[in-house]
Design brief:
2 domains, single chain, two-stranded antiparallel sheet, 434 Repressor (Amino-terminal Domain), 2 strands, rod-shaped, mainly alpha
Length: 147
């Protein structure tokens, strides 16, 4: 619940009009309207006064309020785009590196020698981890949408 919604709820529960709350706080009615519509936020001093008027603690008034709700929505989109980009590069790396086997049999002077290319092993592991990370990020994003 946003701060504006909480202010409006407590104002209504206490039977106050916006004009009465504005008068008690010492601000204009338009300021109270803006608070309730989340177009602006009351100062710390006004929050304390509102809590006193509504006979609640300041913590009750502001707890659970996230003033960055719109940023969270943007953050979800950023996470999704990040997961898609990470998946793309993970798949690209996996396709590119898939043709490179980390263990090869090398023929030197007619003798079979087993060669382990650690660079290729690391790159295969990195590509796999990128794909797994992208899947996990996507699943976390989808889980966040369902809440």
């Amino acid at each position: 619940m946003s701060l504006g919604e909480k202010i409006k709820m407590h104002r209504s529960q206490n039977g106050f009009s916006q004009e009465k709350v504005a008068e008690l706080v010492g601000v204009s009615r338009q300021a109270v309207t803006k608070w309730e519509l989340n177009q602006s936020a009351p100062s710390t001093a006004n929050l304390i006064t509102l809590a006193e008027i509504f006979k609640i603690t300041l913590d009750d008034l502001v707890s659970g309020v996230n003033q960055y709700e719109s940023n969270e929505k943007k953050g979800g989109v950023v996470k999704l785009v990040s997961a898609i980009i990470l998946a793309f590069f993970g798949v690209l790396a996996a396709v590119t590196i898939n043709n490179l086997n980390p263990i090869e049999i090398v023929y030197i002077f007619g003798v079979d020698i087993l060669e382990v290319n650690f660079y290729r092993m690391i790159m295969n592991t990195a590509a796999g981890m990128a794909i797994i990370a992208a899947i996990v990020l996507f699943l976390l994003y989808k889980r966040g949408l369902n809440r």
